[in-house]
Design brief:
Number of helices: 11
Helix content: 40-55%
Structural class: alpha/beta
Strand order of the largest sheet: 1-2-3-4-5-6-7-8
Distance between the termini: 37 Å
Largest sheet: 8 strands, parallel, barrel
Radius of gyration: 19 Å
Shape: globular
């Protein structure tokens, strides 16, 4: 299982890079628009901060445009690149064309049939927007379960996005997601629990260690 930071904010990436357990960074056009830097500058800086995968989502809507944008992203980011390709007819065609050379993740999946096509096209990841799917379809966890059932035995893994709390993250993993990408506040919240700190405080008050 891998956990990613879902952000294009450099300060958040800097902080997350120090955690030691972040596998990479996922971005999308909306996140890149929240920074004052040009997208190419942001992506370069993110790649310098994190040694793992850097996800870039294609903005083009046609096959030729997607291929050109995907190759440009790969030239910019290098071997860390994962292309987020929308689950459209042109998107699946792009994944089939580019995936032998550049890892691809099909994004904005709202049906298990799209997960099946993602696997057939050679996608490394199939992305489910869990919270958004709950709002639009009624049950984002059911979507993840259906995707997991379809993808079982394939080489395509589920990356869960649009996760708004640690509880939602856990439920998503229990539903069959392989990986999570989380906003910075949820990322921080995943690692803490008030009872854990209470226990540590008790040890500190009553215990002894080798460094005194």
């Amino acid at each position: 299982m891998a956990i990613y930071l879902d952000s294009a904010i450099i300060s958040e990436a800097q902080a997350a890079s120090k955690f030691g357990w972040i596998s990479g960074i996922t971005t999308n056009p909306t996140l890149l628009a929240k920074t004052d830097l040009p997208p190419d500058t942001t992506l370069k800086k993110l790649a310098q901060l994190i040694s793992g995968e850097i996800y870039y989502q294609l903005m083009a809507s046609d096959f030729e445009g997607m291929v050109a944008e995907g190759k440009a992203a790969f030239a910019l980011i290098g071997r860390q690149t994962v292309l987020k390709v929308p689950a459209t007819a042109a998107g699946f065609q792009t994944v089939a064309y580019l995936s032998p050379e550049i890892p691809c993740a099909v994004t904005a999946i709202y049906g298990a049939s799209q997960a099946a096509v993602s696997a057939a096209a050679g996608a490394k990841y199939a992305i489910a927007y869990v919270n958004r799917a709950t709002r639009l379809l009624g049950d984002g966890f059911a979507l993840v379960r259906d995707m997991a059932s379809v993808l079982r035995g394939s080489n395509t893994e589920i990356l869960a996005a649009s996760v708004k709390s640690p509880a939602e993250a856990v439920a998503t993993l229990q539903a069959g997601a392989n990986h999570l990408t989380l906003p910075f506040d949820v990322l921080q919240a995943m690692a803490v629990h008030e009872l854990s700190q209470q226990t540590v405080d008790e040890f500190a008050k009553n215990g002894r260690g080798i460094l005194g």
